[in-house]
Specification:
With 490 residues, this protein is α+β, with helices and mostly antiparallel strands. 42% of the residues lie in helices and 17% in strands. The chain has a 6-stranded mixed β-sheet with strand order 4-3-5-2-1-12, with helices on both faces. The structure holds alpha-D-galactopyranose (GLA).
Amino acid sequence: MRPLQLDSSDVLHALYNRPPRELSAHGIRYERLRQLFKTRFPESDPKFIVRAPGRVNLIGEHTDYNGYPVLPMALDRDILFTAAPSNGTTVDLINENPQFERRSFNATFPVAPFERGDWGNYVKAAVHGLLEAGLVSKSKAVGFHAAVGGTIPESAGLSSSSAMVVAAALAFLAANGVECDRNALADILARAERYVGSEGGGMDQAVSLLAEAGHALRIDFFPLRTELVPLRQELTFIVCNSLIRAPKSESVRYAYNRRVVECRLATALLSRAVTQRTGRTVKAERLSDLSSAQLGPAYPELGETARHAIGERPLSLSAVAELLAMTPRQVQREYCMQRDGTPLPEPPDGFRIWNRYRHIVTEAARVGLTVKALKSGDNTEVGRLMNQSHASCRDDYEISCPELDTLVSLGLENGALGARLTGAGFGGCTVHAVPTETVAEFLKKMDVSYYKGYVKREQARPFSSFNNLNDVMFSCHAASGADFWPVGEG
Ligand code: GLA
């Protein structure tokens, strides 16, 4: 493997696919982390660098854990580790952001978590997951020390947490001299991240590991498959942060896990209905196992069966149990369990299973159509599909909030062809498809209408503050996936 020279613009160009004048900032970051490493770990030299990008999802929201495709791209915002193997099992982490305190632990299985919400848990998730999967030997594991830095806004739906898991995993593998197939690693890390408590799907880890510069990535799951979708110069995707935090390990966890459970219940109700209709036992693990493509052309009326089996009204736990001919306790044990071993508390307003189902199947179809539209350069169609996706996320999946809805409508008023929330939702960011020639004007208008307008007016809302507009609103440049390199001398 070629050693990385920190000032090598060729290497940086390959990673970030940006013109030379924009690369120096990255070079400076790499150098700054090397200095931090040397100050905090004076007993050793850094031996390798790891980089893992965040992502923006263009379309396909909450489809991944249902077995349907997604269409994200990697950002040129990433997590960096400058690291070296330890002498024993110690993992020692210093973060250049003083908000994240120094953390250390032993890479011995099982790895007990820090308190909920602690940044070190994302590193623990990777170490625990790789030990559990047997990729790193439980008896011979070597730890690492690392200086950690990042440019992905956190709790913003841009996958800073999964980038941290991926970077930590690559550092742990490098410290142990283990190589691994990237698809297999993406699967292992998707499971590993559930360590922090949310029942996430596999999109974030997969795109961070498998993306290529200049492309979006269509990802299909079970088994993991990817297709590169070239992005055209004339269309730019712009991310706007609503400034409403959506931390994966905290408030969003219940809301996210609830959607996962509602989809499991949809799968169960629909499997039962199809079995009853066809007389042949259909055992589906997830909604995609029940698509008409899977069941064959003999089963075109799936949507009607679903409407019948699920009904359009919210269902209580006991109503679901009755429909499944089970007891409420059996339903909880079978479908409502979370990673921490507790059942998801029943939502007081009932499970909204029909709406969740409708979002997932229509969203899955939109992913395929968006890939087609991007390939043929039909940007109006891309925008139209994004708008439909946002409406479905807002009304059927109920993962939007007033700030995301405001950003979407302002975006459309200010010249976007399409706009939608991106990521898990409940806060975080929107993504806007904007003709490249109008980007500068669009950014100006969004600043005036949202950041200087709406945010100033709605002072009672819990907005995060920011120093630099470019940290909360920026054009996305599709970067390449995660990597690690030995550090060159010099
Ligand atoms: C989070 C999860 C992903 C995916 C998105 C919603 O980012 O980690 O797996 O489910 O939410 O699309």
